[in-house]
Amino acid sequence: MKKSIMQNGRESYLSGRTDSLEKHHVFGGANRKWSEIYGLFVYLAHDEHNEPPRGVHHNAEKDYALKCDGQRAFERVHGTREEFMQIFGRNWLDEEPGEAADEVSTASAAGAGSSRTAPIFKSKVYTDRPLYADYDAPRKFEAIKSIITRRLVEYPNAICSYSGGSDSDIMMHLIETVRSTSPMFAPVEYCFFNTGLEMDATKRQVHDMAKLYGVKIHTYRPKIGIVQAVRKHGQPFVSKIMSKGLEGVQKKHIPLSIADEYANAEDKAAKRAELGGGNRGTSTKLHALSALCIHQGANTACVSSCTFP
Length: 309
Prior knowledge:
By secondary structure, the protein is mostly helical.
């Protein structure tokens, strides 16, 4: 049985209690097995482990502090911060930019009653934003390769969509770079979806990339062509924002003729007030209309450039 590198005795990591002890893996989910392998687990009393509001599974502050302690233990015993990130995919100690590591309360302090001001976010743009998103390019690629490594271990029959564009080229390069480091990684199946509108240059790129990296890129065709799909389901739009705006236009029965009137107005704010009559969401609907050029007498809509303030 693996031993914890975070504590020596079999007692609560938070309080020192010895009753109703349960094993807690500091990094759960997909990282649970790595927590076991590297000894990143502690013992907690049942109410400290799984009972609200004190239990670590119901207390974000204690959970965060435990993860910080776990990362420190890994760096003390096993390796560097970069190696930790390659395995666990995240750097908990530097999660808040500019915050010194010694300012983060330890889990023991949290259990004893010390408080740590948890980061407060107002949008999922921040709460779901991965740490590596703000790295410079070299560090970002290293972080992404560490994630790819984990996924290849977890999913030996991995499938990757490939479009022939630059983003797909970079992704294939990173995947195959990781695969080249060890024979344990099985080949990845790449899939290219040929809608019938792809340029010859794109098809050549698919062929050239397969040859360059020695991989197979399977080509798939849709059951229904683009033309038939548009006739049946309608014209797709460039973004969810525009789609939502146009949905509002239809529900409010706003005439499409006001698009030009709004687009040509010098004072957009005044025109919004005039056309909207104080209705909530008018701005979004008008922006959606101004971004569209409706061809009279045809069943097509062409998207023009539009800057959203």
